[in-house]
Design goal:
With 540 residues, the protein is α/β, with parallel strands linked by helices. It has three domains: 2-19 and 148-236, Glucose Oxidase, domain 1 (3-Layer(bba) Sandwich); 36-139, PtsI, HPr-binding domain (Enzyme I, Chain A, domain 2), CATH 1.10.274; 267-536, TIM Barrel (Alpha-Beta Barrel), CATH 3.20.20. It is 46% helix and 15% strand. The chain contains 19 helices and 16 strands. The chain has helices spanning 36-80, 83-96, 100-116, 121-139, 164-169, 188-196, 231-252, 279-284, 297-300, 308-321, 358-363, 365-378, 394-413, 431-435, 437-441, 451-459, 477-492, 510-516, 528-536; strands spanning 2-5, 7-10, 13-20, 155-159, 175-180, 200-202, 215-219, 224-227, 268-273, 290-294, 326-330, 383-388, 423-428, 446-449, 496-499, 520-523. Strands 1-8-7-3-4-5-6-2 form an eight-stranded mixed beta sheet. An eight-stranded parallel β-barrel has the order 9-10-11-12-13-14-15-16. Strand 5, helix 6 and strand 6 (200-202) form a beta-alpha-beta unit. Helix 1 (36-80) packs across helix 4 (121-139), helix 2 (83-96) crosses helix 3 (100-116) and helix 3 packs antiparallel against helix 4. The chain is globular. The two termini are 49 Å apart. 42% of the residues are buried.
């Protein structure tokens, strides 16, 4: 038996044969040509066919994995039509008098190398995209590139990594699991695997084609691949698989069910997400809304401040995708462990207690106002709530409200529509906010407890320091009493309170939260149904 460890990106246990994904041969020969214009026409013809195929892939993905995940094929279409890309191909044809296939291949290599050398992870991922579209164009010069070489039986698909088009084109009914030597937890393969409910393991560097056709077990939870497993391992994993299937079947029965206790108490269960790519998981897991949309991903994924228009389109997309369900977007929360170079933040001895979140927004108001304008412009497209992180005083809330009124006035003057029903809330993350929560509750529409920060500030423990793990206790009675105090004060003034930190998914505390009167729990999408199960089994 050979045991290889990687990183599990979607849970599940499967037994099957390893099948190495075979791509079409897209090797290209350099050929000297005389008629450059004819060659450019060949390029345009192949490009047109490619755009048609990408549109078909978008339509297929839209049905299978939802709009958010299908968007990659819209991005690919834009890349095919990119001016720089096309100018490069045509320039190589003109300057070198070479065939269009070769010009596309050289352009692909150059662009992929350029993207791959960038530090930004998002831009690095574009290297695979440009190779994907270029190989498709090359395939379309002579032959149909839609046929993929895949196994006839159900197998565990192995590869270096899979391009988005390859993943979507695979017959899901024949794929037991994905195992890749490369990729990341946020790669297209990982995202689509989660959406398509297929176990996936990445970073399995020791996996080579010598294992092709071998029997294997994939554990998507631990990220382990067992090749030619012994009898004992097979029995253990079979038992684990049976338990896993039973759990998932039971949870699936909860879709569409209410989050209501045996005593009749109802609670909202929402989802936390880090970007548009997570919306498919929100819908798949039947979340009632989005309780925390981390807007900082827009800032973290770029090399410059995101424009108002980019932010508006992103917020509009998430609101439309949720079709009237509540979407709570947290304003920019960087600093501490989330650094962005172009913000030029000074080095701090104690960043967790430093210049972060709302403190940055209130001292760099133009950045903040740009985000607020985008949020209010998007508010007409769904049910929007906005919440502000790291609040410690009523003065901060007053200043935020003044800026909101400025933004509304500017939108009115420009004739831009916005909703009058946007809920304004604050995160309860500091003992200061807890202690004045009676005053804060009179100024906002809701509270959302960030238990990760509340725990570290209450216990005076840096949660990033592994040396303090034995002292870090999120179940500490002081933390729970803080949450109870905030809940009581919220309800005293007729406001609702939720929990969006990690404790929201801690089913050991669900009963306690119900006793407190917590109105909403916002958790990572895979935890929605387990928390619903806990609520429905509760007597509270």
């Amino acid at each position: 038996m050979v045991v290889i460890n990687g990183k599990g990106v979607y849970g599940g246990i499967v037994f099957g044969k390893l099948s190495f994904f075979q791509r079409k041969d897209v090797s290209v020969k350099r050929t000297r040509i005389e008629d450059k214009e004819a060659e450019k026409k060949r390029f345009e013809k192949a490009k047109k066919k490619t755009l048609e195929q990408l549109q078909a892939l978008f339509d297929k993905a839209l049905k299978e994995v939802g709009e958010t995940n299908a968007q990659i094929f819209e991005i690919h279409q834009m890349m095919v039509e990119d001016d720089d890309y096309n100018e490069s191909v045509n320039s190589i044809i003109d300057s070198q008098s070479v065939n269009a296939e070769y010009a596309v291949a050289v352009t692909a290599d150059n662009f992929a190398e350029m993207f791959g050398s960038m530090e930004d992870e998002y831009m690095k991922a574009r290297a695979a995209d440009v190779r994907d579209i270029s190989n498709r164009i090359i395939g379309n010069f002579q032959a149909d590139s839609d046929e993929l070489n895949t196994a006839d039986e159900k197998t565990i698909i192995c590869s270096d990594d899979l391009a988005p088009s390859e993943t979507v084109q695979l017959d899901k009914s024949k794929v037991l699991a994905f195992v890749t030597t490369g990729g990341s937890a946020n790669s297209h393969t990982a995202i689509l695997a989660r959406t398509m409910n297929i176990p996936a393991v990445i970073g399995v560097s020791e996996l080579t084609e010598e294992y092709s056709g071998k029997n294997a077990i994939v554990d998507g939870y631990t990220g382990t691949v067992y090749i030619e497993p012994d009898e004992k391992t097979s029995e253990e994993m079979k038992k684990k698989q049976e338990e896993d299937i039973k759990k998932k079947e039971l949870l699936q029965q909860l879709k569409g069910k209410e989050n209501v206790t045996k005593s009749g108490r109802k609670i909202n269960i929402y989802a936390n997400i880090g970007g548009l790519g997570d919306i498919g998981a929100v819908l798949l897991n039947d979340a009632g809304g989005i309780g925390l949309f981390r807007s900082e991903f827009l800032y973290l994924e770029d090399n410059d401040y995101p424009t108002e228009e980019l932010q508006f389109l992103t917020y509009k997309k998430v609101l439309e995708s949720m079709a009237g369900k509540k979407v709570i977007i947290r304003t920019l929360d960087i600093g501490a462990d989330k650094k962005i170079d172009y913000f030029n933040l000074k080095k701090e001895d104690n960043p967790a207690l430093g210049y972060r979140a709302i403190r940055i927004c209130l001292t760099r108001k133009e950045i903040f106002k740009t985000q607020l304008r985008a949020l209010y412009r998007a508010s007409v497209f769904g049910n929007l709530g906005i919440m502000f992180p790291m609040i410690i005083s009523t003065d901060e809330v007053k200043e935020i409200k003044e800026l909101i009124e400025e933004v509304k006035k500017e939108l009115d003057e420009s004739g831009i529509e916005y909703s009058d029903s946007v809920e304004i809330g604050i995160m309860i993350e500091t003992p200061a906010a807890v202690m004045i929560s009676d005053e804060l509750a009179q100024m906002v529409d809701f509270f959302s407890v960030g238990t990760n920060d509340l725990t570290q500030y209450t216990l005076a423990i840096d949660r990033q320091n592994p040396e303090l793990d034995k002292f870090y206790n999120p179940h500490h009675e002081a933390v729970l009493r803080m949450i109870k105090m905030a809940a009581d004060n919220a309800h005293k003034y007729g406001k609702w309170i939720g929990i969006c930190g990690e404790l929201g998914a801690d089913t050991e505390l669900t009963d306690r939260f119900l006793e407190m009167g917590i109105d909403e729990l916002s958790v990572s999408p895979p935890f929605v149904l387990p928390v619903r199960q806990k609520v429905r089994n509760s007597d509270k």
